[in-house]
Specification:
Blueprint lengths: L2 H16 L4 H17 L1 H4 L4 H32 L8 E6 L5 H13 L3 E6 L5 E6 L5 H19 L3
Antiparallel strand pairs: 1-3, 2-3
Helix pairs in contact: 1-2, 4-6, 5-6
Length: about 160
Amino acid sequence: MNPFLLNLFLAVTWAGLWGSFTLTQLAFGFVMGFITLWITQPLFGGSNGYYLRAYRVVRLILFFLYDLCMSSVQVAFDVLTPKNRSNPAILEMPLDVESDIEILLVTNLISLTPGTLSLDVTPDRKTLIVHAMFADDPEEVIRGLKSGMERMVKEVFET
């Protein structure tokens, strides 16, 4: 049986037992179901794929939130201080991700982060055109995006 569907079933069951189908109860039920399935995994002979992917998704979310906060502070500081520290540039970032969903997720996460904006993907889907607000060292910006956002997205979709 699919562990994700079983986890959803356990979340709905948890909320039903409490008699409250709120988002909080469903989320708590989902977490409790995940822990229960993880602990009982050896009994069912399931694979670690579901649990590893869940870990990678949570890690990507936490990394994005950290990156969001840090870049927000950097942009706000530049806007609120009299000296202009930005050095904008349009960069070409080679893509290692290949599927449509991976490219979509990378481009959206980059665009949601203040100070960077995904402009376009080349027709061969091998290069992402990015506008960076702080591109003093363009190679470092590209290296940071590839080793951070793109690498984590790629790991989420690995089998």
